[in-house]
Amino acid sequence: MLFRSIYGMILAAGADRKLSDKELRQMAETTAFLPVFAGFGLDQLPAAAARCAELLQEANGMELVLKDIQEALPKRLRATAYALACEVAIVDGVPSPEQRRMLRILRDRLDLDRLTSAAIERTIIARYARP
């Protein structure tokens, strides 16, 4: 189940075809410190990323990953998964158009209403505001 939140972060980070050091660091810190990842070792992150990459290489790979996320995550963790993806997308600054599109797709697949997703997005923007 936890792999699926990681899949969402990978989709958001990789949507612009670049994985920056900041994005990778954000994913590592997230999995190391958030309660939702209790019992998930940081050493498991590379395997989760590799599995996501394998799925993405298949025909209809993005669809497979999105379906996997949707089916595996309980409703109570879907907003969390979306928030984590948003954090990874913004860690480098303003998300690219590709990242924004991926976040919309993820939001829709997680069946999050617009009010919830807007609140998450606004919170992430406030957290990552630059002086």
Précis, in short:
The chain is mainly α and 131 residues long. The chain contains 7 helices and no strands. Helix 2 (21-33) runs antiparallel to helix 5 (75-90).
Report what the structure shows.
- There is one protein chain.
- This protein is an all-alpha fold and 131 residues long.
- Helices cover 72% and strands 0% of the residues.
- The protein has 7 helices and no strands.
- Helix 2 (21-33) runs antiparallel to helix 5.
- The longest helix is centred in the middle third of the chain and has 16 residues, at 75-90.
- The model has no long low-confidence stretch (mean pLDDT 91).
Query: Which stretches are poorly predicted, pLDDT < 50 over at least 5 residues?
Result: none
Helix content: over 70%
**What is the count of helical runs?**
7
Global structural class: mainly alpha
Mind describing the biggest β-sheet? Answer: none
Task: Categorize the overall geometry.
Answer: globular
Distance between the amino and carboxyl termini: 37 Å
Average pLDDT number? 91
Percent strand equals under 5%
Radius of gyration: 13 Å
Q: Give the topology string: H per helix, E per strand.
A: HHHHHHH
* Tally of strands: 0
